[in-house]
Amino acid sequence: MTWFLALLVVLAVWSAVHLSLLIHRDGLGSRRPPTSRAAWSDATHSLPSHRF
């Protein structure tokens, strides 16, 4: 019974490490988002301010 519990603990630790490595390699949480475009006020300065 003790070996079975030890095997379960080792399997759980290995699964957690494997999952964290997969997430890290995928780039989730470690990459910066792309830079945003110019503000809307700068891009729409020539549009009329009233509704059509």
Structural class: mainly alpha
Work out the helix count.
2
User: Could you spell the SSE succession in H and E letters?
Assistant: HH
**Rg (CA only):** 26 Å
Biggest sheet record = none
| Total DSSP E strands | 0
Are there runs of 5+ residues with pLDDT below 50, and where?
none
Shape: rod-shaped
**Mean residue pLDDT:** 76
Provide an overview of this structure.
- This protein has 52 residues and is mostly helical.
- It is 56% helix and 0% strand.
- It has two helices and no strands.
- The mean pLDDT is 76.
Give descriptors for this structure.
about 50 residues, mainly alpha, 2 helices
Strand and helix map with partners:
Blueprint: H1 2-26, H2 40-43
Give a summary of the structure in a few sentences.
With 52 residues, this protein is an all-alpha fold. It has helices at residues 2-26, 40-43. The longest helix has 25 residues, at 2-26.
